Amino acid sequence: MKLELHKVRVKDVRWGDRTRVENGVLYVDKQAALASVDGDSRFARVDLDLARPGEKVRIIPVKDVVEPRVKIDGGKGYFPGFCAPMGTVGEGATLALVGAAVVTCGPIVAFQEGFIDMSGPGANYTPFSETNNIVLVVEPAANLDMHAYEAALREAGLKLGVYLAQTCVGTRADEVEVFEKGPAAQEGAKYPDLPKVLYVCMSITQGLLHDTYVYGTDLKPSMPTLLHPNEILDGAMVSGNCVSACDKNTTLHHLHNPVVRALYARHGKEVNFLGVVPTVESTVLDGKLRAAAMNLTLARELGADAVIVSEEGYGNPDTDLCLNAKYLENAGIVTVVISDEAAGTDGASQGLADATPELVSFISTGNVNEMIEVPAMDRVIGDEKAIAMLSGGAEESLRPDGSMLVELQAVIGSTSELGFSRIGCEWI
Amino acid sequence: MKFRVVHYINQFYAGKGGEETADFRPDSIDGAVGPGKEFDRVFQTLGSETRVVGTVVCGDGFFGENMETARAECLKRVEAFKPDILIAGPAFNAGRYGVACGDVCATVSEKLGIPVVTAMYPENPGVEIYFKKSYIIPATDSARGMRPAIESMAKLALKLAAKEAMGTAREEGYLHRGVRRNFFKPKNGAERAVDMVLARLRGQEFTTEYEMPVFKRIPPAAPVKDLRDATIALVTSGGIVPFGNPDRIRVSSAETYGTYDISALNDLVPENYESIHGGYDRQWSNVDPDVVVPLDVMRELEREGVFKKLHPILYTTTGTGTAVSHAERFGQEIGEQLKKAGVSAAILTST
After folding, report:
1. Residue A115 falls inside a structural domain
2. Which among B74, B69, B63, B78 has a CA at the least distance from the CA of B22?
3. Which of B188, B276, B329 to mutate to test the interface with A (most CBs of A within 10 A)?
4. Is the CA virtual torsion A108, A111, A113, A115 positive or negative?
5. Cα distance from B218 to chain A (closest Cα, Å)?
6. 3-state helix/strand/coil string of A1-59
7. pLDDT of amino acid B216
């Protein structure tokens, strides 16, 4: 499977009379962009706003972040099942407006969204302070059920992303990145001496607005399934999550999955990268046991020597994390997990809600409860009072002067358990 | 920078005798004594004019047997020197000395608010008791390791006194104080994971970034003998509270729980109760809060005599992002209150 990622670098975003990228500036035709998502009866009002790196802007509450992309060879649209016909992705060519991002914002479900500061100390904790953001602010139609609102906003974010990229087709790419890897069996014959590594990507699949989509379908009722790494990097996975902002895997996170990229970079040199298993985090114990058992079967059948397991969320998924480590290690498969910690605001509490002695190699992506102070911004996109309802926020978080004292978990992407950022916990 | 250091040592290192004088009472000496002189030399080598201005001495036996008196007396003597920094030991593997050093450090830190540093062998009982309250440099089990211990202590003390950013326990070389803190690392988490995989596959050394916590095992209570004679309580982490959330329980990362009298209620309805939980779609629990706290069904069963009585108090909090230490405290307090009230069983509903 061979994927060419045609990257058009976006260094600035501005309104323009025609949507295009010129000299690294993404010009957005606001009316046309709005038209790409408007007309949905589920919305009472739709608006767009822009936020650039370094600006004194706060975006709150943020649900998802999407990189504008479209297939330019080997397919149409993007995100099969949402904005593209159903079919395999990961082959052909994709145009990506790298450095631009669609951010979906609005009083979505009144909780478990996050915020982005485009400058100041809060900006250091989120990758989305470095992207040129096209912010989609929506108000739901009266009496719209929350789950219908979530679906509408999810779809609108994807649509806007595809619209922006589609309109820029023909722009010369600044860089073409190629991802190529044969089927697992073939690669095994090619690299008989390299250790075989599988990546198990735990995803929140818990209903009540805590869901992940693979090829357009809810992963929740699914068994763990094997994908080629290219499929992950080319829009097979979409976030439908309204979970704590710090460690939800947004759609952009999936498109740039850093574990996939890190393993790919060493494929054929230090490892034989077998593939990716999107797996579930069930709400019931049998579901957790079943998923861990199935993940082990996949790892064994593929002959994995090692597995990297990444978590999404915290709390009960810690049990899935422990079970995966336990089953795999007991089968003699080296297992490294990536997870954040909920060690309390003072950092003195146990970081996980579950533990198992087999889990001996743990990569920490930070304490979600650590307090951070962020100054007031000149402009707020969305509603700053939403902080009272977000995980990591409280009624007293927002001070009269507009500054906030909040837990890190309110910052979107701050403790990404895909290992997206450089943050991690240490003992002091 | 020039700081005033007070050094705490035992009778042996002060040259006042060995075990036979372990009952030596707290005393003060101007300037450096014994290992204190080595501290002065190290401070000088480090280019600092910081010096040991006074030494406080106490016999290990006296400290151990008269802890409160010794603690108060030593604190008074330390304070009299107006120090910027307190150092104690090194105590190596001397148990009583380690406890005395740890106790003096903890007390001075708490009462005077100045940096404190001690050093001891990691298995010294003083570590287990005081590691959360003092910086402790790991030392060898005997005085052979005096010099490196003093060098590390001096460096750490100067850094603390100068209020420089303190690094991780691993980097700075102290025994950690049981606290996790966020740091930005040179590589992202995914790269670190692949590095760790390769290190393990190659049989190289690797260091996990979080050692598994050991959970306490709580033995379950004996089964209820006769349900018809039982008082049952409802306890929830599902965030169901009286409408308006009168006690302002947080929507996530709760640090409190609420206790509410439900004795006059037969049903939870949107007019009297709601969910404030920040971790799930509250739509249906706000239409009917009984789906999380099944008061309606419990009343029916109570009327039918399936069990004797529903406990009049509902205990409730939000269980999302809640630190284990808070959850543990909630459990202990609620359990105690239920026991005192003669409750035979509790139904815990989560979400």
Report:
1. yes
2. B63
3. B188
4. positive
5. 14
6. CEEEEEEEECCEEEECCCCEEECCEEEECHHHHHHHHCCCCCEEEEEEEEECCCCCEEE
7. 77
Of residues B196, B319, B321, nearest to A244 (C-beta): B321
Mutation pick from A350, A360, A397, A398 vs chain B, by most beta carbons of B within 10 Å, is: A350
Closest Cα partner for B241 from B228, B229, B256? Answer: B256
Residues 251-280 of B with CB under 8 A from A: 251-253, 278-280
**Which residue of A242, A349, A423 is in closest CB contact with B184?**
A423
DSSP state of A401: T
**With the C-alpha atoms ordered A68, A73, A74, A75, is the resulting torsion angle positive or negative?**
positive
Residue type, B224: V
- Is B4-172 a domain of CATH 3.40.50.2300? yes
**Residue contact A259–B193, C-beta within 8 A:** yes
| Cα–Cα distance measured from residue B103 to residue B95, given in angstroms and rounded to the nearest whole number | 12
Residue ranges of the domains in chain B? 4-172, 227-349
Q: Which segments in chain A show pLDDT lower than 50?
A: none
Instruction: Quote the CA–CA distance of A9 and A6 in Å, as a whole number.
Output: 10
Partners of residue A48 on adjacent β-strands:
A136
| Number of independent structural domains in chain A | 1
Inter-chain residue contact A428 with B192, CB threshold 8 Å: no
Check A242, A246, A322, A425 and give the catalytic one: A242
Do the chains contact at B176 and A363, CB–CB below 8 Å? no
Q: What is the pLDDT of residues B282-338, one digit of tens each?
A: 889 999 999 999 999 999 999 999 999 999 999 999 988 788 888 989 999 999 999
Q: Which residue of A has its CA nearest to B206?
A: A361
The token pair that represents B333 in the structure block: 């307090």
- Beta strand ranges found along A375-418 (DSSP E): 379-382, 404-407
Does B210 contact A at CB distance below 8 Å?
yes
> Which of B183, B197, B326 minimises the CB distance to A334?
B197
Which residues, including other chains, have CB under 8 Å from residue A364's CB and lie 6 or more apart?
Answer: A339, A340, A341, A351, A424, A425, A426, B189, B209, B210
Is B212 within 8 Å of A357 when comparing Cβ atoms? yes
> Computed over its alpha carbons, how large is the radius of gyration of chain B?
28
Q: Do B279 and A342 touch (CB under 8 A)?
A: no
Question: Sign of the CA dihedral A84, A88, A91, A97?
Answer: positive
Question: Residue type for A9, please?
Answer: R
What pLDDT is stored for residue A386 in this prediction?
A: 87
- What does the DSSP assignment read for A180-241? E---HHHHHHH-TTSPEEEEEEEEE--BTTEEEEETTEESTTSPP--B-HHHHHTTSEEEEE
Category of B292 on φ-ψ map: left (φ > 0), alpha (ψ -120 to 50) or beta:
alpha
The reported pLDDT for the residue numbered A113 is 87
Instruction: Write down the pTM of the prediction.
Output: 0.90
Q: How many residue pairs from chains A and B have C-beta atoms closer than 8 A?
A: 236
Mark yes or no for CB contact A266/B194 under 8 Å: yes
As a 3-state breakdown, chain A gives helix, strand, coil percent values, each rounded to 5, of 25, 35, 40
In a domain, A334, yes or no: yes
The one-letter amino acid code at A30 reads: K
Low-confidence ranges of chain B (pLDDT < 70): none
Q: Kindly list the distances between the CA atom of residue A280 and the CA atoms of A233, A285, A412, B230, in Å, as whole numbers in the listed order.
A: 19, 12, 22, 40
Question: Which pLDDT score, from 0 to 100, does residue A109 have?
Answer: 57
B243 near A CB under 8 A: no
Exposed/middle/buried for residue A71 (C-beta within 10 Å: 0-12, 13-18, 19+): buried
User: Considering the domain boundaries, does residue A318 fall inside one?
Assistant: yes
The candidate with the shortest Cα–Cα distance to A137, out of A102, A162, A167, is A102
Is A421 a domain residue? no
The pLDDT of residue B87 is 98
Whether residue A242 lies in the annotated active site: yes
Range of the domain at A105: 2-410
Gap from B314 CA to chain A (nearest CA, Å): 23
B186 touches chain A (CB under 8 A): yes
